[in-house]
Amino acid sequence: MAYLSASKKVKKMNNIKLRSHTLFNILRIKSHEDFHNYLFDESINRYINHRKAKNASLGSVLAICANYREAECLSKFSFEKIHLSGIGIPDQNFLNLIDADSRMIYSEVNAECTDIPSKSFDLVLVKEGLHHLARPILGLYEMLRITNDASIVIEPADTFLGRIFEKIGLTNIYEINQENISKEKNNDGQAIRYRDNYVFRWTPKIFDEILKSYYLDSGYKIDITVGWMTSKWNGNRNTIVRILTTLVGRFLSFIPGSRGNYMSALITTGNDIPDDPLKL
């Protein structure tokens, strides 16, 4: 679907493209690791094709809410600079991987409000991190501000059927509010409590509305792959289970409003972006 400027003179065309996971690729997933690697590789390969069309190298990438998995997956691609960010100190395995790759650096960053200059990276990426934030949309706005070309967002998708499946344990559960009690103590000797936010899920419409408010009619594009996926079933080593899961997921995707529970979006910025949209 395409959206045109409301003015009489159309400047650019903003575009959303929806696609499904191919049956062949899903059936190749045989483990939990395969599942997460596929989500990364499928998204980054679309970015690679985008950069090839521009006759450009992969450039630099910033991964927010990053951990060992982001470092391991991004190291396979020919990025010139890989900046990994998160909250807290990485564990030793994570640090070893960073030290082994001269392109990599790590820093503590609040994804909702960073001090990174605008348009600093060719690609800004997040995998299943925004829904942990108290204000997920602010995290996406920061990604859009920091990128010079494209963003990749891999997040749970919001569908009615998905919520039902989560409640009966058929897919991964995101709809949880919980408080984690840490062994750390505050100045009064009380346990520090951390509240995790897993309640925010995305739809193509939400992406489009946010981009229209930020990029206006600048000619941005959203390329979204969405489908029914879960490491519990798609990553099963039993071939029959994987085939049945894949076929059921493909059948469900034809139900209106129920394309899937996972989505990966490649967002490209367009050509007429305001210099500083936040000042408009």
Description:
With 280 residues, the chain is of the alpha/beta class. It has one domain: Vaccinia Virus protein VP39 (Rossmann fold), CATH 3.40.50.150. It is built from eight helices and eleven strands. The chain has helices at 23-27, 32-53, 68-74, 92-100, 136-146, 160-167, 204-215, 239-252, and strands at 2-4, 13-19, 60-64, 81-86, 104-108, 121-127, 147-156, 177-185, 191-197, 221-227, 262-268. The strands form two sheets. The protein has a nine-stranded mixed beta sheet with strand order 1-2-10-11-7-6-3-4-5, sandwiched between helices. It has a two-stranded antiparallel ribbon with strand order 8-9. Helix 2 (32-53) crosses helix 3 (68-74). It starts with a strand and ends in a 12-residue tail after the last strand. The model is unreliable at 1-10 and 175-181 (pLDDT under 50).
How many discrete domains? 1
Radius of gyration: 19 Å
Query: Quick one: overall form?
Result: globular
Distinct helical segment count: 8
Structural class designation: alpha/beta
β-strand number: 11
How far apart lie the N and C ends? 27 Å
Biggest pleated sheet: 9 strands, mixed
What is the element layout, followed by pairings?
Blueprint: E1 2-4, E2 13-19, H1 23-27, H2 32-53, E3 60-64, H3 68-74, E4 81-86, H4 92-100, E5 104-108, E6 121-127, H5 136-146, E7 147-156, H6 160-167, E8 177-185, E9 191-197, H7 204-215, E10 221-227, H8 239-252, E11 262-268
Parallel strand pairs: 2-10, 3-4, 3-6, 4-5, 6-7
Antiparallel strand pairs: 1-2, 7-11, 8-9, 10-11
Helix pairs in contact: 2-3
